[in-house]
Specification:
The protein is built from two helices and 16 strands. By secondary structure, the protein is mainly β. It is elongated and about 55 Å long. The N terminus is likely disordered.
Length: 209
């Protein structure tokens, strides 16, 4: 799926920032851990953002999808990769169950927190979407911006859904928890995205914020 132009530009297009983020704290509930990942021999070494510590990574995902995604962006070939891994920390080990985002030579990103929960983007035509606390925004090349009131994004069995209507706009999206590859940017995202805007379908990748 060739969607690199808008995936790489989505942060700037939607007015987001790219900064360092704190690593996910230890606990039993899976959280997103942000940092740089390197391969040393047969071991994966994780360096959390804004932290000088290190942790080993254990892939506990079904079918080792985490390892497969990381190898697709060059980790197995010795490249340094920025990752956002869903997992838990136990005994200094990051047990990763899914990939939210993995990008070669990427920077640490600031989590969305209460202000933003999802992003999605794609090309042909170029578009970007952000789910904010009060509004959902869709930007498309050569088209007026779309703004609809934010509402709950339901997530069930690996599928996130949202739908909203105004007098002028009907917006709906479906994010499926399935690896979405951007070969031109050496990036993999944890969700595929299908967005419907007034009957028009947009395809791309999505990731949690």
């Amino acid at each position: 799926m060739k969607i690199s132009r808008f995936l790489l530009a989505a942060t700037l297009v939607l007015g987001g920032t790219v900064q360092a983020a704190d690593p996910a704290p230890a606990g039993t509930a899976p959280k997103i851990a942000y940092g740089q990942l390197m391969k040393q021999g047969d071991k994966l070494v994780f360096a959390p953002c804004r932290d000088r510590s290190y942790a080993m990574v254990e892939d506990i995902s079904p079918g080792r999808t985490v390892t497969r995604a990381l190898d697709e962006v060059g980790l197995g070939a010795g490249k340094k990769v920025y990752v956002e891994l869903v997992g838990i920390v136990e005994g200094g080990m990051l047990k990763a169950s899914a990939v939210n985002l993995a990008r070669t030579e990427g920077r640490c990103q600031l989590p969305g927190g209460k202000d933003e929960s999802w992003r999605a983007a794609g090309n042909e035509p170029g578009w970007a979407l952000a789910v904010g606390a009060e509004v959902v925004v869709v930007k498309r090349l050569g088209e007026p911006d779309i703004h609809v009131p934010a509402g709950p994004v339901t997530v069930d069995q690996g599928v996130a859904r949202f739908e909203a209507k105004t007098e002028a706009t009907r917006l709906a999206f479906r994010f499926e928890q399935k690896l979405c590859r951007d070969t031109m940017a050496d990036a993999v995202f944890g969700w595929t995205a299908t967005v419907e805007v007034n009957g028009k379908t947009l395809k791309g990748c999505a990731w949690q914020r």
